[in-house]
Amino acid sequence: MHPLYGVLGNPIAHSKSPMIHAAFAALTNIELDYSAYCLPIDDFEGALKALMDQGLQGANVTVPFKENAFRLANHLTVEAKEAGAVNTLAFKKGEIFGHNTDGNGLMCDLKERCNVELSNRRILVLGAGGAAKGILGPLLRQLPSEIVISNRTFSKAVSLAEQFNASGNVLALDWADLTGHFDVIINATSSSLHGEFTPLPCAMDAQTIGYDLMYGAKPTVFMDYLAQQGVVKTYDGLGMLVEQAALSFEFWHGIKPQTETVYQDLRQILLS
């Protein structure tokens, strides 16, 4: 019997994690069984402990359980503490180790696949929920000149900026008050899921980079909007999905798999 791993969520049928981790296992010659587990909304802890009793050695965690996993973990990485959420769990001798690879996954995709320079750049992060919180720490470690957080509920943006402004130049601005030019604009809202995007009053041009944490077969509404404003380079979050998975794999196995073939295969599946 191969070591057991899986992804925990509800719903979970849509998850690409089993496909991604099967590919990583083949690339690294590591034998494992990786499955998707739909856990009950009202008993994450009980269901997780039952899986641990069955021999589960590690798990990815997705919506809506990342904060549940954070509370259950006995040991947390810096990234998990910053995010206040866990997307990767490892189980050793009854101890639960929690990590968050979302932010560093985004950094890998931006820097290595998209060739985006982040140091000394003015960055706009749209959204102030869990997705935004998970990327701010890693973004700040790239030493941007400024990170502006904007959110429809302005108080949430203010709260998030206050949590991180000791680590760098972070401030909150109301959506209507966004001014000046941004080098990088990251959409961490769910607007692309709903097919609607509220226009931005700030300046952008052909040098601006746009990145949407969401992904799909076609460019997202956010990407389309930026293209209409003259932005040439826009990216969706498929690369982030693959890179955060690779970092989870490394957390468990000590080996970071090559990601490009997996990324290209997933892109082709989306397009077909």
From TrEMBL:
Shikimate binds at S15, K16, S17, T62, N87, D102, Y215, Q244. Pathway: Metabolic intermediate biosynthesis; chorismate biosynthesis; chorismate from D-erythrose 4-phosphate and phosphoenolpyruvate: step 4/7. Keywords: Amino-acid biosynthesis, Aromatic amino acid biosynthesis, NADP, Oxidoreductase. Residues 7-89 form the Shikimate dehydrogenase substrate binding N-terminal domain. It holds the Pfam family Shikimate_DH. One of its GO terms (biological process) is amino acid biosynthetic process. Residues 237-264 form the SDH C-terminal domain. NADP(+) binds at G127, A128, G129, G130, A131, N151, R152, T153, F154, S155, K156, L213, G237. Residues 117-192 form the Quinate/shikimate 5-dehydrogenase/glutamyl-tRNA reductase domain. GO terms for cellular component: cytosol. It catalyses: shikimate + NADP(+) = 3-dehydroshikimate + NADPH + H(+). InterPro entries: Aminoacid_DH-like_N_sf, NAD(P)-bd_dom_sf, SDH_C, Shikimate_DH, Shikimate_DH-bd_N, Shikimate_DH_fam, Shikm_DH/Glu-tRNA_Rdtase. It comes from the Bacteria. Belongs to the shikimate dehydrogenase family. Homodimer. This is Shikimate dehydrogenase (NADP(+)). It comes from Wohlfahrtiimonas chitiniclastica SH04.
